[in-house]
Amino acid sequence: MKTIASVTLPHHVHAPRYDRQQLQSRIVHFGFGAFHRAHQALLTDRVLNAQGGDWGICEISLFSGDQLMSQLRAQNHLYTVLEKGADGNQVIIVGAVHECLNAKLDSLAAIIEKFCEPQVAIVSLTITEKGYCIDPATGALDTSNPRIIHDLQTPEEPHSAPGILVEALKRRRERGLTPFTVLSCDNIPDNGHVVKNAVLGMAEKRSPELAGWIKEHVSFPGTMVDRIVPAATDESLVEISQHLGVNDPCAISCEPFIQWVVEDNFVAGRPAWEVAGVQMVNDVLPWEEMKLRMLNGSHSFLAYLGYLSGFAHISDCMQDRAFRHAARTLMLDEQAPTL
Fold first, then answer.
1. Tens of pLDDT, residues 183-194
2. Nearest-angstrom CA–CA distance, 190 and 159
3. Which pTM was predicted?
4. Crossing angle, helix 208-217 and helix 161-174, to 10 degrees?
5. Backbone angles phi, psi at 251, to 5 degrees
């Protein structure tokens, strides 16, 4: 079967310019979804294209995603991102991913051991808010969650993200290995503290001493992410295959705009993401507030008034001079002064 790894691709397709044989699983990522493919993995790929290195990614999925992982393996862990913009499209083959593990295809034990390999420096996550097993009312670990109950009863065979992270950190500590940074990349406010509360909550239930060690030695940087990445459809996959001359079942389309703001607090090193345009900062909160007010607020403004005016899409509103002027006035005169 022909794949993007086995054919000569058209000249307009941007393929990896670095030696993928040098990659190691220095980043282990939970959640090989559409957003991660077109965001964190793509930005890491940009760093590798700019300066090479060994910052490879091992993708992890637990109890779903086995078909996608099988498809990814069949094409040497390469996949396509189609950036669609008003000024044209870019077709990019991402090569930063070089390994993947799935609980169904491999084993849960193999996944946990991957986190314990010495070269692993960052564990990143895009698992949605639900995946952190946090009680939304309190912000603490939800000990009534079935997976958390399971993990507290059988901690060496965890099924939740907090349970796996705590078990992996416990084993690294016992083996004298450097801990890793835990990096939430989910689009939720204060995501660093969300994952920190989940991990420390689980650790406290298992061993207060272990929780103290994690609190002292592990970092949980906050991040702010922004890019529109729709789920793949049959139509989008056909469009991408027309660019490639071959099918890519792992491909994804997205907008050209991309932003990632990251708190620069890593305990075991990181890629030079700033080379790819990532904003490494001391405090992510001002950026979160800017996005919430300027982007989300303006989007809601256009959605509510646009609906009442008979428009079907936000883009339709922005084609209207009155709406465009109103949105600009709102952002510059009302929202920006509050930042």
1. 999 999 999 999
2. 24
3. 0.93
4. 90
5. -70, 160
Longest Cα–Cα distance in the chain: 64
Question: In this structure, are residues 56 and 151 in contact, taking their beta carbons and an 8 Å threshold?
Answer: no
CB within 8 Å of 195: residues ≥ 6 apart:
125, 132, 182, 184, 220
The label of the residue with tokens 């996944």 reads 111
Residue 222 φ then ψ, to 5°: -85, 155
Listed residue (212, 100, 103, 120) closest to 172, CA to CA: 120
pLDDT band at 63 (very low <50, low <70, confident <90, very high): confident
Look at residue 279 and give its three-state secondary structure. Answer: strand
Can you give the C-alpha Rg of the chain in angstroms?
Answer: 21
Helix (H) or strand (E) run with residue 72 in it = helix 66-74
**Average pLDDT over every residue of 79-89:** 94
Q: Name 129's Cβ contacts closer than 8 Å, sequence gap at least 6.
A: 136, 186, 188, 194
Dump strand ranges (E) for 136-263. Answer: 181-184, 223-226, 252-254, 259-263
Please check the confidence at residue 66 and state whether its pLDDT lies above 90. yes
The residue assigned the tokens 């022909």 is: 2
| E strand or H helix that includes residue 195 | helix 191-206
Burial (Cβ within 10 Å: 0-12, 13-18, ≥19) of residue 144: exposed
150, amino acid identity? H
pLDDT one-digit tens code per residue, 248-287: 999 999 999 999 999 999 999 999 999 999 999 999 999 9
For position 1, what pLDDT does the model report? 82
Q: What is the mean pLDDT of residues 173-183?
A: 98
151 within 8 A of 160, measured Cβ to Cβ: yes
